[in-house]
Amino acid sequence: MKKIVVLGSGESGVGTAMLAKKKEYSVFVSDKGTIADKYKKVLLHNDIVFEEGKHTEGKIFDADVVMKSPGIPDKVALIQELLKRNIPIVSEIEFASKYTDAMLVGITGSNGKTTTTMLTNHILTAEGLNVGMAGNIGDSFALQVANETYDKYVLELSSFQLDGIVDFAPHIAVITNISPDHLDRYDYKYENYINSKFRITKNQTAEDFLIYDADDEAIENWLKNNKVKAQLLPFSLEKSFDKGAYIEDDNIIINTNSNLFTMSIAALALQGKHNTKNAMASAMIAKLLGVRNNTLRESLEDFDSVEHRLEPVLKINGVQYINDSKATNVNAAYYALESVRTPIVWIVGGTDKGNDYTSLLPLVREKVKAIICLGLDNSKIIETFGNVVDFMIETAGAEEAVKVAYKVSEKGDTVLLAPACASFDLFENYEDRGRQFKDAVRQL
């Protein structure tokens, strides 16, 4: 019996443990922290051996294969020792993909990947296709492979998940965009992070497709200097193509296989330049998979937006409160600031991942009247924007930040939570941060 050790007991870890058990592996789950009750129940119910609060090296080094949760960096001593001993380390995505014949769509990017994944799933489901949505979203891919029989999967993939792939090969890969993010995990080298994103196409063949943003400098430069086997399908707001997606007279034009689809940008449910690009990527996937034009058009018109992504919460005394807790990097915060048309009270800050805020300066000068810091260390934010806005204050929680925002905002303003940072200093994750913000707004 092959032995698998699962490091980390979150969604991907427990999903992998369940699938491995089904495939008759001997399974051991090890978590240095505490295992959440809901996951502990699943492990106990399925008679899966686990430990928490420690890593027993003797048991871990006995593994034939190790599945490492995406949150664990490669630099950790335990991982380095596993590599030294030549024990294979894979991601959940890699492990699960070996046990399904389903057609895979993989979507990555610094921003927009959740929206593009959910929109694609919405379109394919509306067409009546038997499709599962997994990866960085919902139930883990491994758990769905263990329990479901989908023909197709739409997978939202982070760079951390892609770092652990060996043979994983999506039929359709999407790179929505690339901007500096998670540089603390990539030795503060942007090129390492870019290479990580392009791992999504490394096992693709000439039968497969890579959909990408042709306006993105990092993507374009990488493609100039590296060979890709997959067929390239670019999308752009500025250029036009024989094959790909582009804009003409305020219409989106999609041409994947001489089957033309056009639609007015004004009719899209999701507005804003970045959302037009998300719609282009999703529409190209849909056309490659034979979705009918009327289904595609209806789906793009009626899609509801994603929680914690430019989510309107309430309007109070003429002030609009917007939750964009998912803006965990500078580029996402840029989109958020760009999309708001009124004076902004900006709630920003958290765990800095090596951020450079200078690209936000023009927008902050033009639009932001007050900055409310929401992090334990706000020195870089204060240093960058201290001379640019009239009012700046540090707060220690969502409730305090919202109360201050209420005091300094006036009718016609927007209070925008767009942290540009991870949430782990004060919150469990970006969802927790977003929900606490929304709760605080509702209590005003």
TrEMBL record:
<dbReference type="GO" id="GO:0009252">
    <property type="term" value="P:peptidoglycan biosynthetic process"/>
</dbReference>
<keyword id="KW-0131">Cell cycle</keyword>
<keyword id="KW-0573">Peptidoglycan synthesis</keyword>
<comment type="pathway">
    <text>Cell wall biogenesis; peptidoglycan biosynthesis.</text>
</comment>
<dbReference type="Pfam" id="PF21377">
    <property type="entry name" value="MurD_N"/>
</dbReference>
<dbReference type="InterPro" id="IPR013221">
    <property type="entry name" value="Mur_ligase_cen"/>
</dbReference>
<feature type="domain" description="Mur ligase central">
    <location>
        <begin position="107"/>
        <end position="285"/>
    </location>
</feature>
<dbReference type="GO" id="GO:0005737">
    <property type="term" value="C:cytoplasm"/>
</dbReference>
<dbReference type="InterPro" id="IPR005762">
    <property type="entry name" value="MurD"/>
</dbReference>
<dbReference type="GO" id="GO:0005524">
    <property type="term" value="F:ATP binding"/>
</dbReference>
<dbReference type="GO" id="GO:0008764">
    <property type="term" value="F:UDP-N-acetylmuramoylalanine-D-glutamate ligase activity"/>
</dbReference>
<comment type="similarity">
    <text>Belongs to the MurCDEF family.</text>
</comment>
<dbReference type="GO" id="GO:0051301">
    <property type="term" value="P:cell division"/>
</dbReference>
<dbReference type="GO" id="GO:0008360">
    <property type="term" value="P:regulation of cell shape"/>
</dbReference>
<feature type="domain" description="Mur ligase C-terminal">
    <location>
        <begin position="308"/>
        <end position="421"/>
    </location>
</feature>
<keyword id="KW-0133">Cell shape</keyword>
<keyword id="KW-0547">Nucleotide-binding</keyword>
<keyword id="KW-0436">Ligase</keyword>
<keyword id="KW-0961">Cell wall biogenesis/degradation</keyword>
<dbReference type="Pfam" id="PF02875">
    <property type="entry name" value="Mur_ligase_C"/>
</dbReference>
<dbReference type="Pfam" id="PF08245">
    <property type="entry name" value="Mur_ligase_M"/>
</dbReference>
<dbReference type="InterPro" id="IPR036615">
    <property type="entry name" value="Mur_ligase_C_dom_sf"/>
</dbReference>
<keyword id="KW-0132">Cell division</keyword>
<comment type="function">
    <text>Cell wall formation. Catalyzes the addition of glutamate to the nucleotide precursor UDP-N-acetylmuramoyl-L-alanine (UMA).</text>
</comment>
<dbReference type="GO" id="GO:0071555">
    <property type="term" value="P:cell wall organization"/>
</dbReference>
<keyword id="KW-0067">ATP-binding</keyword>
<feature type="binding site">
    <location>
        <begin position="109"/>
        <end position="115"/>
    </location>
    <ligand>
        <name>ATP</name>
    </ligand>
</feature>
<keyword id="KW-0963">Cytoplasm</keyword>
<dbReference type="InterPro" id="IPR004101">
    <property type="entry name" value="Mur_ligase_C"/>
</dbReference>
<protein>
    <recommendedName>
        <fullName>UDP-N-acetylmuramoylalanine--D-glutamate ligase</fullName>
        <ecNumber>6.3.2.9</ecNumber>
    </recommendedName>
</protein>
<dbReference type="InterPro" id="IPR036565">
    <property type="entry name" value="Mur-like_cat_sf"/>
</dbReference>
